[in-house]
Amino acid sequence: MNVQDYMVQLGQQARASAKVMATATTETKNNALLAIASALDSQREAIIKANQQDMAAGRDNGLDAALLDRLELNSNRIDGMIEGLQQVAALPDPCGEISDMCYRPSGIQVGKMRVPLGVIGIIYESRPNVTIDAASLCLKSGNATVLRGGKEALHSNQAIAECIAHGLQAVGLPATAVQVINTTDRAAVGHLITMAEYIDVIVPRGGKGLIERIANDARVPVIKHLDGICHVYIDDRADPEKAFNIAFNAKTHRYGVCNAMETLLVHAAVAEQTLPRLARAYTETGVELRGCDRTQAVIECQAASEEDWSTEYLAPVLSIKVVDDMQAAMDHIDRYSSGHTEAIVTEDYTRARQFLAAVDSSSVIINASTRFADGFEYGLGAEIGISTDKIHARGPVGLAGLTSQKWIVFGDGHVRK
Amino acid sequence: MNVQDYMVQLGQQARASAKVMATATTETKNNALLAIASALDSQREAIIKANQQDMAAGRDNGLDAALLDRLELNSNRIDGMIEGLQQVAALPDPCGEISDMCYRPSGIQVGKMRVPLGVIGIIYESRPNVTIDAASLCLKSGNATVLRGGKEALHSNQAIAECIAHGLQAVGLPATAVQVINTTDRAAVGHLITMAEYIDVIVPRGGKGLIERIANDARVPVIKHLDGICHVYIDDRADPEKAFNIAFNAKTHRYGVCNAMETLLVHAAVAEQTLPRLARAYTETGVELRGCDRTQAVIECQAASEEDWSTEYLAPVLSIKVVDDMQAAMDHIDRYSSGHTEAIVTEDYTRARQFLAAVDSSSVIINASTRFADGFEYGLGAEIGISTDKIHARGPVGLAGLTSQKWIVFGDGHVRK
């Protein structure tokens, strides 16, 4: 079968399965998640063996250590996948949730019911545990899924796919409710992102390059997660202790994450009070500092170039800029931010309200670390990604982000007058 | 200036205006709406004169009577536009609405704030009053707008655009917050729907052909309103009086609207009891009936062809099918519905719940007319269209559909542990 026919077949099967999934009971979906967990547990050896094939091929193809680490599956990581499935099974079912019911003057009662989106396509890179992550969230939210993992993880993903199919069948759901594309042909992605009749939304998980490419070529809506160039602004009315703690935590808690601070903005009036202590702490922790002229007048550091302001380091590097006031900080954010997460540290009520209202990012934070911008921290229970889009889902996307709402009307024979 | 440069300039101006609009106060936005209303009132003559130019050109170009009627502006219709502006001014401001605030175990308080989408592109056909409709909803929801009306209405739209600019400036808002494209060059639309850096979402208003073309070529998200092939299913457990009233109202209350019933599905067990009375009423009202074989065995009517089941008549024509049971009705809907609105008439609790859960349309109605699927009837106060998409906005789209939600976090120096 050629790749187009193969993808159309996958799409048709997904569309048919989506209808079954949309009305599957909460119990059935939870049982499926637990049955998949059991299958992973009993197929540990087969999965690890398949993964070793991928690892060997990866080494032969010269994958670097970081990529090999992301590719590797061991018993611990399989435990992690099993735990993830159990956690998703424990979450409330978003489907069927009815809200905003009210009576209208006409006498009808109207409200909304949460329903699955339909078929979700997930495109991701090397980590095979994303297969379970993504499949479990889509399954719980009543959607069918077509998964396309990285070519390096093909054997691992196929082994995991067998466990998923086994779990679905064990509870009487169609095995095609979760399908993992079994070809590394790049044309498969081209079909996946353009088959609007079979796929309702694409969620790409990976680097900015991958996501931009997909968004550019897609004819299906894409929930994008581009980069996280996050800012912390320390106002001259900031509590110094809070400012220190937040600025330090936002940069150093973890480096390779999208909600880490990449640029620190400091009000000129408190630069001398704030920066030396922070610079010592950063330097001791191994963070390289790159500052504007005014920063360099206060602390010793590299000069920041224009490029620094729009760079997502994902590394122990921080750019620092001294600004005249909050408006200058907001102007900088407006120009360079990727719209992911920005924080202000201030005790000033009016400025806090202004910053909250005016900053156009998916998370706006007052007096807390940017690292809180996360589905688990926000109480979503799980996260398929963080959307930097404004349409449909913005910020951390949990189960609700994989659903839609339809209007429901209850009447008693009502007609329009 | 060539059309591309012109569109880029419009886009840049819209993007800059959007920032101002996003933080404009409710009072300022309402004052702008009322100032636009005043300008329309005082510019009545100029608007009607401009419209007469369009009408004369339309007649010369052989526009049919229906199109000419939609194109015409008179003092009554200008009153309607003024009233519309006053109604939108009276609606609650969706922007800044904070919801779902809760404390997390970490100590942060997290919730959502409603914010504008940014820049909205509206593409529509001949009716010039859409210019005011669309502009007022986008303005109230804090967005900048780029409007592209039908070429037949160019002079009318330019006259209205002057009133809008005047109203915006009168309250200190940028005149470029609402821009009406002043060229009939079709290339302008091509730029509008692909300038993702300047336009956040496109709302096309018009026929299915226009919308499909736009959705196909757009690189900007599109809120689509395709056709309304709406069904009413009369169950064998229906109350006969309710069934009669609903089926009659859903077809005959208005013909040219998307939420009118196009196909009636009747349970075989009640076909003989239900159809003759309905057929008499429809026929007396001038509705042409086209039925399946089993329908023709009960009432006299034309034979329905396969094509009838997927036709949006927008006219006094109704297709009728007798089905074996609710499942057969839902299968028919699943196959032929456009996903707009479906209704069931039944007194059976379990079937009502099943129909509600399983039918995948933007409105699902129990024991009421499909004609209720409407932003005003649902209490949205106004409506920019009815979305048959599942992403972002589904069903009637009011002010909230033109906004997004960002996450907001309040802390007191909180950091991630």
UniProtKB/TrEMBL annotation, chains A, B:
Similarity comment: Belongs to the gamma-glutamyl phosphate reductase family.
Sequence ranges assigned to domain Aldehyde dehydrogenase in this UniProt record: 12-285, 309-373
UniProt-recorded Gene Ontology molecular function terms: glutamate-5-semialdehyde dehydrogenase activity; NADP binding
Location in or out of the cell: Cytoplasm
This protein's record includes keyword Electron transport: no
Annotated InterPro entries: Ald_DH/histidinol_DH, Ald_DH_C, Ald_DH_N, Aldehyde_DH_dom, G-glutamylP_reductase_CS, Glu-5-SA_DH, GPR_dom
CDD domains: ALDH_F18-19_ProA-GPR
Catalytic reaction list: L-glutamate 5-semialdehyde + phosphate + NADP(+) = L-glutamyl 5-phosphate + NADPH + H(+)
Pfam families in alphabetical order: Aldedh
PANTHER family: DELTA-1-PYRROLINE-5-CARBOXYLATE SYNTHASE, GLUTAMATE SEMIALDEHYDE DEHYDROGENASE
Keyword Signal: no
Pathway given in the UniProt record: Amino-acid biosynthesis; L-proline biosynthesis; L-glutamate 5-semialdehyde from L-glutamate: step 2/2
Major location (coarse): cytoplasm
Protein name according to UniProt: Gamma-glutamyl phosphate reductase
PROSITE patterns, sorted: PROA
Entry keywords, A to Z: Amino-acid biosynthesis, Cytoplasm, NADP, Oxidoreductase, Proline biosynthesis
Domain of life: Bacteria
GO cellular component annotations of the record: cytoplasm
A biological-process GO annotation: L-proline biosynthetic process
Role according to the record: Catalyzes the NADPH-dependent reduction of L-glutamate 5-phosphate into L-glutamate 5-semialdehyde and phosphate. The product spontaneously undergoes cyclization to form 1-pyrroline-5-carboxylate.
Catalytic activity, EC: 1.2.1.41
